[in-house]
Amino acid sequence: MNSRRNFIKKTTLGGAGIAVAGSAMGMTAKSYSRIMGSNERIHVAIAGLGRRLGAFYEPIAKKEANVELLYLCDVMEKQRTNAAQNFSKHINYDPKLENDIRKVIDDKNVDALINATPDHWHTPGSIMALKAGQHVYVEKPSSHNMEENEMLVEAAKKYGKLVQMGNQQRSSDHTIEIIKEIHHGVIGNPYKAVAFYTSDRGEVPVQKKAPIPQGLDWELFQGPAPRREYTEETWDYNWHWYGWEYGTAETGNNATHELDIARWALDVNYPHHAEVESAKRHFVNDGWEMYDTMEATFKFAGDKVIQWDGKSRNGYDTYGGGRGTIIYGSEGSVFIDRDKYILKDRNGKLIRETLSGFTEAGTTLGGGGGMSTTHVLNFFDGIRGKANLNAPIDDANISMAMVHYANIASRIGKGFEVDELTGRMFDRDAMKLWGRNYAPGWEPKL
Questions:
Q1: In this predicted model, which residue has the larger pLDDT, 233 or 154?
Q2: pTM of the predicted structure, to 2 decimals
Q3: Which CATH superfamily is domain 2-168 in?
């Protein structure tokens, strides 16, 4: 198995000679297609079959990806069967259906794990896979807290495997193009970025004790999180809003993307100061337990600043789109979202507008599109040594830190200073939220 994994990085099988051999062996086209290039084929498993599943149909099905999907894994039975039915429209073989991510990771045939589980599973599950010798594509947010943020980077280095975060706009051609131009001075000195997300999410049910839904492994859903009784509506998306045991609020759910673009554009690392104004301002008696409105400010060296404007449940269109990033420079400005960028001079005159060649989900639930496909294919090419990752975890988790700073500042009700070299917070109350409590025996270990 180790030799096969090493061979993935070194060579591909010669096409013409194998075509003759395949014909001579009398294989069916289906059987032959699965053997052809097998030494370079990447064996993939997906854990977490919820709303991000659609992002993986195309990259896994593409012939040039040369991957085989070995497992579809989820703690909910109907998620597994639905995923199998949906994938059957894209591939001509049947992956195994599995309830327990640990069994998937224990299979030495798996080369790479796509970790699309809920937030509290992202780092623990990814570290398990890395220790087993697997590369990891981990959906955002890649960590649940700052301690995990550091641990995942350390684990990738320790085990010598690739980890790509699912901040797919890093693989967007139009974004790569304009960020490069910003770094080369197209708007002069970039000094400020405003990242935003605007949505009109509705009322969330108040949690009530309820029977565990049929087909749900509630024990495994909780996994690393401390144990509690099941409450209605929890497993299917509303875990995002039901306290901090599973989710990372809207900042982890969505700000991850735009804060990353902002940091990339300004070419900064850790801030030296973080502060927020946040509150729950809508449906005040419903089950949503976190803020639904936040304004965050991060200050960096060189008088650079990133601001986050997050409105989860007020659909007022402040910026001309549901999500995006505006970068201000001494000689101009740029608006970037998943569809386009707009470049203007200092006087606000349009210089250029460039549309993306992709379609990609914006503020709607679910996901997928050309941007996600390109990002996953970049991960596969990285495994083969044919490309550098567009969102390697050591860089991606610097952006992730802003998510955690914002959540921590919101929870303790004050801002704080940050060590811009290490990312550590100079505040005793903030540092109490550096990590989290785990269920006994579930603590992630390197």
A1: 154
A2: 0.91
A3: NAD(P)-binding Rossmann-like Domain (3.40.50.720)
